[in-house]
UniProtKB/TrEMBL annotation, chains A, B:
The keyword Transcription regulation applies. Keywords: DNA-binding, Transcription, Transcription regulation. SUPFAM superfamilies: Winged helix' DNA-binding domain (SSF46785). This is Winged helix-turn-helix transcriptional regulator. Pfam families: HxlR. It comes from Actinomycetospora chibensis. InterPro entries: HTH_HxlR, WH-like_DNA-bd_sf, WH_DNA-bd_sf. Residues 16-114 form the HTH hxlR-type domain.
Amino acid sequence: MPDTPNAPYEGIVILAPHRELLDQVLDKWSLAVLNELCERPCRFNDLRRAIPAVTQKSLTATLRRLERNGVVERVVVSSRPVAVEYRITPLGKTLRHPVDVLLAWAAEHMPEIERARARFDEDVPAH
Amino acid sequence: MPDTPNAPYEGIVILAPHRELLDQVLDKWSLAVLNELCERPCRFNDLRRAIPAVTQKSLTATLRRLERNGVVERVVVSSRPVAVEYRITPLGKTLRHPVDVLLAWAAEHMPEIERARARFDEDVPAH
DNA sequence: CGGTATCCTGCAAGATACTG
DNA sequence: CAGTATCTTGCAGGATACCG
């Protein structure tokens, strides 16, 4: 039935492009940026202040990637001096719900996960 | 109101441990492994066959990490020769819903995202 | 079969300096 | 203010060989 013969396993194949997309929008700093921009539009240095641990370079890269994927919009306000504002897009807003579901899961199960980690680290202290 | 004075911004602080957890359970190969183990218990080499692109080393690392976080269980079946089976845990099953929501988002908005990428890549061809 | 043990490489990401 | 340009480094992850 598949026109590509010997396809490995459909589930995994289907997964791949989504996996790549998640790498783009859920990477190290994206959640923090998205979280911030959902509150309000931000200037570049607003974001730096809100996320102290991020470097200029990484923040720029994160914003460009999010912009490229259409979840964030870069607005240049022509004033003196020029101001740049980042905003969440309508597409970006649709990402909020899935992320919230994920964070809710993390919050709910964190205690259980920490117990699992403690158990594992105790049983396998070192080889 | 916060008992920690000068906390940077609560949202981001709260985010950090969750961010770390997601790095553990949503990393490069975890989705594929989880997806597979939700279907059925698998032996090590079953997983290798189901996910051809993963190396032995990465698969081992992924399974150990998932096991440590309590979402996967490693069961040694004492037979001749010894067999090892990996199973999803009850905790692991609770991860399925959030992940499905995320994948549904990806599937639903993929076309829009691809348009955004095309637009971006055209407007910013190269510097 | 189900892994370790090594070696190696690319590249994500930090530090730092400079710019329109 | 909002970046770009370099340089450097840690380390995730691949390749390969070996083991109980």
